[in-house]
Amino acid sequence: MSEPCDGPGPGEEWGRSQRDVPLFVVGCEDDEQDMGQMEAGMKNEMFREEEMEHDEDQSPSERQIVVGICAMMKKSKSKPMTQILERLCKFDYIDVVIFPEEVILEEPVEKWPLCDCLISFHSKGFPLDKAVEYAKLRNPLLINDLNMQYFIQDRREVYRILQEEGIDLPRYGVLNRDPDNPEECNLVEGEDHVEVNGEVFPKPFVEKPVCAEDHNVYIYYPTSAGGGSQRLFRKIGSRSSVYSPESSVRKTGSYIYEEFMPTDVYTVGPDYAHAEARKSPALDGKVERDSEGKEIRYPVMLTAMEKLVARKVCLAFKQTVCGFDLLRANGHSFVCDVNGFSFVKNSMKYYDDCAKVLGNMVMRELAPQFHIPWSIPMEAEDIPIVPTTSGTMMELRCVIAIIRHGDRTPKQKMKMEVRHPLFFELFEKYGGYKTGKLKLKKPKQLQEVLDIARLLLVELGQHNDCEIEEKKSKLEQLKTVLEMKVQLTYLRNGQPKASSEEEDSKKDGPSLLLVLKWGGELTPAGRVQAEELGRAFRCMYPGGQGDYAGFPGCGLLRLHSTYRHDLKIYASDEGRVQMTAAAFAKGLLALEGELTPILVQMVKSANMNGLLDSDSDSLTDCQQKVKARLHEIMQKDQEFSQDDYLKLAPTGSPSLVNSMEVIENPVKTCDKVYALIQSLTSQIRKRLEDPKSSDLQLYHSETLELMLQRWSKLERDFRMKNGRYDISKIPDIYDCIKYDSQHNASLSLEDTLELFRLSRALADIVIPQEYGISKAEKLDIAQAYCVPLLKKIQLDLQRTHEDEAVNKLHPLYSRGVMSPGRHVRTRLYFTSESHVHSLLSIFRYGGLLDEEKDQQWKQAMDYLSAVTELNYMTQIVIMLYEDNNKDPSSEERFHVELHFSPGVKGCEDDENVPLGFGFRPASSEPNQGSLEDLSQDQPDQALPVSEPINIQRRSPMIRNRKTGSMEVQTLSQQQAAWFEGCSMVPSIYPLETLHNSLSLKQVDEFLNAVCESSSEVHTKTMKGWSPTAASVFLWIRNFSSPTKPASMA
Q1: 164 and 133, same structural domain?
Q2: What residue spans carry the region label Disordered (predicted)?
Q3: Partner of 548 for a Cys bridge, out of 554, 603, 715, 1028, CB 3.0 to 4.6 A?
């Protein structure tokens, strides 16, 4: 007989109570295991049968308990198994025998080594039938039941057993195909869904082979998010998945289809209280590895309910050692796969616990048979490790950012009044009269609108009068761009005529105002802006250590990868906003690959209760009055008088006053703008007539003909037939000239800079003043837009310091993490210009601070008044810090900072751009508040609020990106060459601190007061909804625009 392993007897440190034994589960399968030899402490490499026979002659008191390991060599001699067995041998009465692989494969079971306890599990190539035969022959104590391992190999059986045990599963359907007749199956595939046995699974959904050994799992994305699929597989090198443009499901084989859980996805291996997490393979497919090449995994803490699920899984499958996959989504936990015997990697404490539980189980079951004196001792409970801070250092607890989308193509719009019954029937068919709003996105619905347009064109084909011809041209345009966005508004007595699009003679009776919108999609430059800003945004977080030391911004990556970062990203339902959010997430978390998988998994569509979406055509009474007054002032053919300055700029904002000085006479300036547009369209027509340039490709695949259509439409619409100007077109004119100056400057068209200068001056008045002229109006309109968002921000700040169920790193297993208890909450809200304007108005005019009493706030307000435009990628950032040395009830316990950036820099290098005061300008000491020294894994430092304010005239953040700048610098031509058009990507203004010494109580009371006053006084007043006066909206989305169902978490 081979020698028993040396080691101390099973003392107190090796015991565990009997009730803990069934809850032993370990991490998930991984073929990339260390094949190294057994370590020196493990003396029993194999057990020879003849020694066992000799041992049978010994007296019972001298017998050892033999634990046999029957598995493929790759598993039985892996590093995790070696570590566990080495510790198992420290039990005085336990010997271990590893069955040689050649014996398992080639010898009959009668010649296999004898054992009292068998650890045997299936893997590729393992003869499970022989193991079952051996168990029947020798009848050892089985750690993992062998017959149940047949079921684990079939995902259909796994799901059936889980369902029978009452364990939560994602909604799923099973598609069984006959290999000889794969086409005969209950599968109906649509463009954005599949129907399996009569049950519909809309995309995104997961397609899993029924064979558990087949790891080729596919995730299919909806066309609204870009389509295609993510293909998961067993890790090959540093990849575990790859994105494919293929959107059709597989046509051969049997599969399980299940709904996709888009939020926090974890590969979990819980033992009695052990769970392990890694980066989701479906995100970008890149495997995160440590310096030794091992996949990085971090243990996280399980809830009580999840521990109960772990126990249920173990008992249901009769697998004492069992790994399974757990999905955490929307506050619930779902089991999506069971793997059988599997290991946790690189966790010394886990190896200790694993050996203790196994050893105690074997001794409890077999010690009485061998007359071995043994009892399970008690063990003290583990005490969690909690990090502390000292001095005036504060720990970053929460980051909230509201960000405008990136650079986009010009938005375009066409209006026409329709009265045909078919439009009313369509509106009624899809429930428009019930809610007053109607959104149609499905291809079938879009086809119905297209059919109506075609039918009307046929009916109008017999007429030749001018009125009919104009309707025909608009219907042709409707038919051409139908896949974009359409809005229908019910008008009781028709529409008062106000623009060239609506010059039809007035008719009696109700009508529908059809508004066709297209364009406005995120450009390649916009994607780069968002990704670069996301990368720079990391610098606001505490630094990293170890592999991340010395790399600016990598502290956030370390927080996130070690599950100490609670991140949620919300976006409005506009495609450009959602793609901006996905690109930002890609840069923030250093992800790779396409944006579609990132969008589907990480970005929540937040169009619930107006959180980030707003109906720009459903205005408050206040906003309608403001627009009317604004248009009246801008129609005066005379120089602005002092009275006009008081009417148009009562706040005295320098940006408004400067623009009025540039304009002087609004009508004369509009005359100049109109003449410049005429000149521009004339130049484009001449280019089109030139054979050398007629096929010229402009930025983002636009042609000269499409560019001419853009400008010709503005030329028609800006000056109406009555000679007056439509002021509502000024933002569109500025939008177009800004786009062409930025992206199509190579055309070298004349007078574009003058058109840019004048249209910008007009837009700098019209755009901000549409959100209110006086302070009271600005506050009223702002509340109508963003009270739901304010309530959500208030909730985010409150929840940060409350105990809630989040995914947290387990402190006992946190190898190499100095502060396992740190937990930072990040909430990112991506939206459009209206919400950014409104939120800024709330902070400026809602009474947060008194300018007369607070010098820092007064200087911040002066800075905001000088900002002319809230451009793409504008940011409003709120940061919450905690001083753990202060009393929990003290106002000094939580510290809030408010920061702002006006976003992308303009096309011109403006010398008069207002200078802010820097990011956290009062942080005067070298290491306090510095965003450059990011090499230490410690709580971020905040300035003690008692220190004086030291305002700097130039932002310290305008630095080279290599030093962790928050400014996104202009890319070189070589750097930008990879994206379409090779257009220059403008840099983004750095964050400026508006205030850095607010208390949480102060901010909470302010938000509460604003929300309460809105609910009592400033409720959003819409036009009355009745059968004779209604507002209905028919939205038709471009298939390529990423939209998803509403989701809140």
Answers
A1: no
A2: 915-943
A3: 554
Instruction: Classify the phi-psi angles of 520: left when phi > 0, otherwise alpha if psi is within -120 to 50, otherwise beta.
Output: left
Q: Dihedral, CA atoms, 721, 726, 731, 733, nearest 10 degrees?
A: 20
Q: What is the pLDDT of residue 63?
A: 78
Q: Confirm if 1030 and 436 have CB atoms less than 8 A apart.
A: yes
Query: Which element (helix H / strand E) includes 209?
Result: strand 205-209
Q: Say how far apart CA 1034 and CA 441 lie, in whole Å.
A: 9
Same domain, 540 and 518: no
Q: Residue 240 falls within a domain, yes or no? A: yes
Q: What pLDDT does 449 receive?
A: 78
Indicate if 130 and 192 belong to the same structural domain.
no
CATH number at residue 269: 3.30.470.20
Q: Residue 537 corresponds to which tokens in the numbers above?
A: 């945004």
DSSP state at residue 29? P
Q: Is 585 exposed, middle or buried (0-12, 13-18, 19+ CB in 10 A)?
A: buried
Sign of torsion, CA 105 109 112 113?
positive
- For residue 1026, pLDDT over 70 is answered with no
Q: Positive or negative CA dihedral for 245, 250, 251, 256?
A: negative
Q: Which amino acid is at 672?
A: K
396 touches 33 (CB < 8 A): no
For 404-430, write each residue's pLDDT tens digit.
999 999 988 777 777 788 888 888 888
Pairing of strands 824-831, 395-404: parallel
791: in domain? no
Q: Under DSSP, is residue 778 helix (H, G, I), strand (E, B) or coil?
A: helix
Predicted local distance difference test score (pLDDT) of residue 734: 96
What strand order describes the sheet that includes 141-142? 94-98, 65-70, 117-120, 141-142
Where does residue 253 fall: left (phi above 0), alpha (psi -120 to 50 degrees), or beta otherwise? left
Beta strand pairing call for 411-418 and 511-519? antiparallel
Q: The tokens 């995730």 sit on which residue?
A: 219
Contact 1037, 224 (CB under 8 A): yes
